Each structure stands twice: as C-alpha cells, then as structure tokens.
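Quick one, tokens below:
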C-alpha cells in the first residue's frame, strides 16, 4: 500500500511535536498511594497491553521493509513515542492508523545518525543500529542509556559488527560504524559470551540484509524473538532457529509486508507484575489478554508458595485469595536466569513478596550487577533485608511495611514500589516518576480499576 506523502509529513511533524511535549512533560509527576495494610481488597479484571520489549525490535524491523509495514497492539507508553521519534528523525514516516496501530514507511530515510538525546535515555534504541548498518552501510549512535541497573556494555554488538566486516570508531562520544563505500555487511558466525536479548534481536535483524549466512550461537530464547522472526519469514526473510540458542539467517533483499500487519504479543512482564500484586493484595483478580505459557517460572514459584492461581488460554485468575494470609505462604528462594528462567525484570517485585511471607529467602540477581538498588527504600519501609553482595540479598519475613516517600531508579523497581506501597499500612508518595510511564500504559487508571487508591499529581 503506497502511503501518500503530503498528509503523512504533516501528520508525522504534528506527531513529533505532540510526542516531544509528552516526552518532557511529566518527568516530575508523583503518585500518592493509600496502602491496604496487608489486606487483600483488590478485585476485578485487568487487561495486559502489548509487550514493550517486543514492540521495540518490531518498530526497528520497519527499516528492513520497502513500501511500509504495519504494527498493531503497540502499547501506549513513552518508550514507543521515543522509538517513533527516533525513526522520524531518521526520515521515516510514522503514521498512527488507529489506537495502538502504526504504519511506518522507511523508504525516504536520509540519515543514519541516531538522535543522541533520545538514544542516551533508552537501551532499546540500540536495536536500530543493526538494521541501519545492514541497509545503508553506516550508523552512528551514542552509548545507549536506559534503566540504571548496571554497566550495560555493548561489546557484543560492536564485536559482531566487526565480524560482519564493519569498522567501529569512537568519535567524540559517538560510535560510528561503517562497512566502507559501496560495500555491504557480510554474514558471519557470532558467539555471544553473555546471552543478550537486544544483542540477539539486533544481529538477527541485521543478518536479514547482510550478504550471505549469519549464525548466532548462545542466542537469547525470549518468545518475542521467535514471534517476530516468524512474521519476518512470512514477509520474505530466511531465519531458522529463532527461539533456540542457535539462529541462522540467510541474507537477502528488502522485505515486503503486502497487507500483512504484525501484532505485538502480550507483555509477559506486565502480566507478571499484576500477578505478584494480586498474590499479595487481591481476593479475586482476572489478568486477561496474556499468555501463561510464557510465564512458567513465575507461575510455578507462586503456586508452589501457595497462591491460588488458575490458568486459562489467555488469562490468569487469582481466586478466593482473600482468606489466605500472606504469612502462611511458603518461603521460596529466587534466582534470576535468562528465559525461560525467572525473569530479572520481576526480581524487585518478588522482593516485596518475600517480605510478606514467613521465613528467610535468598534472592540472587544473576544478570545485572546494579539491580538491587531499591533495598534501602524497602528497609526504610520496615523490611528486614541483609545485603550479602551486589548480586544477593537475604529477606526475612513477614514484616509490616509502612508508607513512605520513595523515588524509583528503574522501570521495574518503580512498579515494585507500587506493590510495596499498596501492601503497606498508611500513605506513600512515589516522587520524581520518570520510569513507570515508559513501560506501563495508563497505570494509575488501570490500578484504580481493580481497587487501588492511587492518585497522580502532575509535576
Ligand atoms: C533486555 O535488555 C531488556 N530490555 C531488559 O528489560 C531485560 O532486563 C534484559 O533484556 C534481560 O532480560 C529490552 O529488551 C529493551 P541483555 P538488554 O543485553 O538486552 C550483558 C525492562 O525493564 N551484556 O540481555 O540490554 C549485560 O551487561 C528492561 O524492560 C554484555 O556484557 O539486556 C547483562 O549482564 C530492563 N555485553 C547481560 O548481558 C553486551 O554487549 C544481559 O543483558 C550486551 C549485554
């Protein structure tokens, strides 16, 4: 479908102005939350949005298409606005076709320089580097920013680009990666020393336009990776093994979507966030539009601990939970692991759970060295936590949490504070909110819908 240029350009400029304003406006918002004092009063239904960490690689994949590409079930969150602004600043035309549905045309792209200000704030921006390098032979970008959960190096990306024949330079704080005049990125055999989710996505997408065969070994197994690869194969890509630790890509030409649209899969981390909240504070809660089969690690741990969970095809139900006292739930140890192990993104949320059950639990964050930075705030609320080292804490429960003033350090730790303040006794304030809106759409509206007493105070 050829997209008319004129109205699209106005559309996209307007989109850019609107979204830039949103991007800056509410970084100083705060939330006031009235705690339930350990009671299980939440009830009702909450629907899960499309996955942030599936939408970011999907939007990046638009660079691989001629004549545009449609994506639906996109979550209404700030990271998506940022990604769309990054694409528009490169010269792509991003048209919002309907609620949560975008059409992106990248045939007019003129720039290969990622916007510094935005890329420095969002790790997901790095996924664009592989497709820009593969299509245009060059890309420049800053070290990507994002949640402060560790050093978050990008050696796997830069080493892989070099293996594919590109030259990597670091010029005044920017990486400039190029394959040289009239040359193309070449397929290569890549082994990731550390399993990297965005690394796997970036190199899988780059391999689609590289010359020859690319093999990625020790690849990430996240279900979103296979979900996207299956769609790209239906548009002409040749990807085998996505969702396993070895992915083979045979490079070819630009893809063509025809009238196919890519539907973003449900956000298993958002679903898990609501499930942990429900386990501690809900009587009857239905979490809809989700896929329990991609949440095995969390569901099994909560069931083993004694949470009454029923699974159906696209929903998870917590039933008659009100009569179960959290202090009677069985003690469990948590060790994060790459998918399908326990997700690091739910680690801080489970720490709240461990403060409410009886016994001593070891929580071991194996993936990021800086992802336990929320513990001081929890201790300040009354939790009994001992820091063993930068990767391990011992949590002794149950403890009554008291309402406090808090500031979040990363997206998931901010949601963990939502859970802690809802479980706590008394009022809490979560200040300087700058992360939650990046990953959870309309969060106060949806939490109020199941009975949370929460108010956003605009900054
Ligand atoms: C993705 O981050 C997610 N972000 C993260 O979610 C998630 O926590 C993480 O995967 C792990 O599941 C997006 O998908 C946008 P990694 P990513 O590369 O890809 C090391 C959220 O809240 N590493 O899998 O950046 C790295 O230091 C976010 O939604 C290298 O050493 O994570 C870490 O120890 C937070 N060199 C490990 O690998 C590299 O070049 C895993 O990181 C790259 C990574």
């Amino acid at each position: 479908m050829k997209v008319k240029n004129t109205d699209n350009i106005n559309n996209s400029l307007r989109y850019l102005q609107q979204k830039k304003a949103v991007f800056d406006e509410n970084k100083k918002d705060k939330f006031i939350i009235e705690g339930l004092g350990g009671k299980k009063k939440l009830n009702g239904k909450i629907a899960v949005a499309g996955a942030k960490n599936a939408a970011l690689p999907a939007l990046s994949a638009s660079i691989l298409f001629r004549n545009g590409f449609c994506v639906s079930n996109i979550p209404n969150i700030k990271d998506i606005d940022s990604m769309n602004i990054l694409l528009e600043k490169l010269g792509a035309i991003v048209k919002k076709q309907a609620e949560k549905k975008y059409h992106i045309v990248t045939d007019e792209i003129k720039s290969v320089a990622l916007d510094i200000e935005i890329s420095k704030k969002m790790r997901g921006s790095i996924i664009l580097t592989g497709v820009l390098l593969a299509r245009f032979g060059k890309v420049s970008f800053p070290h990507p920013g994002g949640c402060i959960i560790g050093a978050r190096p990008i050696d796997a990306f830069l080493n892989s680009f070099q293996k594919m024949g590109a030259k990597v330079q670091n010029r005044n704080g920017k990486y400039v990666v190029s394959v040289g005049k009239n040359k193309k990125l070449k397929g290569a055999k890549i082994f990731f020393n550390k399993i990297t989710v965005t690394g796997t996505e970036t190199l899988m997408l780059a391999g689609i336009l590289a010359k020859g065969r690319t093999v990625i070994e020790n690849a990430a197994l996240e279900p979103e990776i296979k979900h996207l690869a299956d769609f790209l194969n239906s548009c002409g890509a040749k990807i085998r093994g996505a969702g396993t630790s070895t992915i083979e890509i045979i490079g070819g030409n630009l893809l063509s979507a025809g009238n196919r649209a890519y539907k973003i899969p449900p956000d298993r981390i958002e679903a898990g966030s609501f499930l942990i909240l429900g386990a501690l504070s809900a009587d009857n809660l239905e979490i809809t539009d989700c896929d329990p089969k991609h949440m095995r690690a969390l569901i099994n741990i909560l069931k083993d601990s004694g949470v009454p969970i029923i699974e159906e095809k696209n929903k998870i139900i917590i039933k008659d939970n009100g009569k179960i006292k959290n202090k009677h739930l069985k003690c469990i140890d948590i060790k994060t692991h790459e998918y399908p192990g326990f997700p690091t993104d739910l680690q801080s949320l489970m720490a709240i759970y461990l403060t409410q059950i009886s016994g001593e639990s070891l929580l071991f964050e194996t993936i990021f060295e800086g992802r336990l930075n929320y513990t001081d705030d929890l201790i300040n609320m009354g939790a009994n936590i001992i820091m063993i080292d930068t990767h391990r804490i011992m949590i002794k429960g149950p403890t009554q949490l008291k309402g406090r003033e808090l500031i979040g350090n990363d997206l998931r730790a901010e949601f963990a504070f939502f859970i802690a303040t809802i479980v706590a006794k008394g009022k809490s304030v979560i200040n300087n909110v700058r992360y939650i809106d990046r990953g959870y759409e309309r969060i106060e509206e949806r939490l109020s819908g199941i009975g949370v007493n929460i108010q956003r105070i605009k900054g």
